[in-house]
Give the backbone structure.
Amino acid sequence: MSRLTDQQDAWGHAMYDAYMGKPAYEIYERDDGDVNVVPSQKYVKGSGRWQPQERAALALARGKVLDLGCGAGRTALYLQQKGLDVLGIDNSPLAIKVCKLRGLKKAKVLSITQVSHKLGTFDTLLLFGFGLFGSLGRARWLLRRFRRITTDQARIITVGMDPYQTKVRDHLAYHRRNRRRGRMPGQIRLRVRRRKRATPWFDHLMVSKGEMAEMLDGTGWEVGRFIGPKGSGYIAVIEKER
């Protein structure tokens, strides 16, 4: 998605309300009618409440950092406090406003698809939501682009979600529907709502560890390691191919 208008910026308004200490939530609406309500306080919680694997992953960040889809600045602020040079980007104008209110020095309204050499050259890319890639084709296109804006020793630190770690019938039916349509089973189409605001419909990509490794083939990147316990959520450290 490109830059969101105020009427589309459901994320940003949820983050801003959470930052202001108000009750806040978003509604995730999938295109088959499935609905999930998520509290927004997660965007502004301090690092003391993070999972151990998140801390372990961020300890691997180095040099100049680009935080893709930075939200309210949770990870960007943490690394800035550690002394790293961090730029956070997000397509939500209000999210970027919250970042700046919270003290992030470098934050820019920009979509992941608009990333280019104009931003500079980076040693670490943070993508705490692999789903932002959207689809297999777009992921491979972006990974090649990311290779051109990063140093030789650069790495991508990303959070993935294995869609197959579920027994929910509606989710399994959605996987079958995707296969019939020629889509990856974990590619979901959804929008986010906050009161009267709603984002445009967009694709969000969930992949298993094996699928992630396969989709990197030919992009110049490879999985260096996985971090985290067994289960649906995991963290991947992606390195440039030697």
Notes: Residues 10-240 form a domain with the Rossmann fold fold (CATH 3.40.50.150). The first strand starts at residue 25 and ends at 30.
